[in-house]
Amino acid sequence: MTELGVNIDHVATVREARKTNEPDPAWAATLAELGGADGITLHLREDRRHIQDRDLQILMETVTVRVNLEVACAEEVLAIACRARPQQVTLVPERREEVTTEGGLDIVASEARVREAVARLKDVGIGVSLFLDPSEAQIEVASRVAADAVELHTGAYAEAARRHQVDVERNELEKLCITSKQIVQCGLRLHAGHGLTYRNVSPVAEIPAMHELNIGHSIIARALMVGLEQAVRDMKKLIG
Ligand code: PXP
Prior knowledge:
11 helices, 8 strands, 240 residues, alpha/beta, TIM Barrel, single chain, binds pyridoxine-5'-phosphate, eight-stranded parallel β-barrel
């Protein structure tokens, strides 16, 4: 069964739009759990544009499913992650000017730094996933740095699907399938996420050995119309 990690960053985005105290991501996490979420995902960005340190603290105390914390490979947030000890950390790249995480982590270019971060997190008992583009060269390095899982970046596939670019969509899905096999052969757990929606999620969820999908924007968008518990339930039904 493919597990669903519900990313609640955008609940905090709404709160931070007014720099006030509502809505609280902890409320959202509770409703997501009631809807069947297998995990709660949050991204503590270095610029703190949505999730704040306090959110992480509260969620670590209140969430009963597993917490997947996304952070950059940067000292300040790695130290916070080691103190908070979520069940899983996903290492992601970060650029201050980006609207959302734009590409996967380039671990070919930063192997030593990523290896050190993975070791540091694993030393305190945190499972580590690496957010990577579906590139064979990147995945080859993932097994060398002793990560537990790779989260494949599905953004290019999702964008092609959104634009109805059928050939590009098919090619991107093919890339995801090929690199998924490589991930499994390397003995790593297979995750995927970014840009997944109720319309495009099924082919990704059906990739053999897909263990976890992390989905945020589309679920929160639907939640505005139908409520979060229902939105999570709808997504759970689709990913089986
Ligand atoms: N996975 C990772 C590593 C991400 O950085 C994000 C966005 O924060 C997601 C999944 C969720 O993407 P989306 O909000 O497009 O579903």
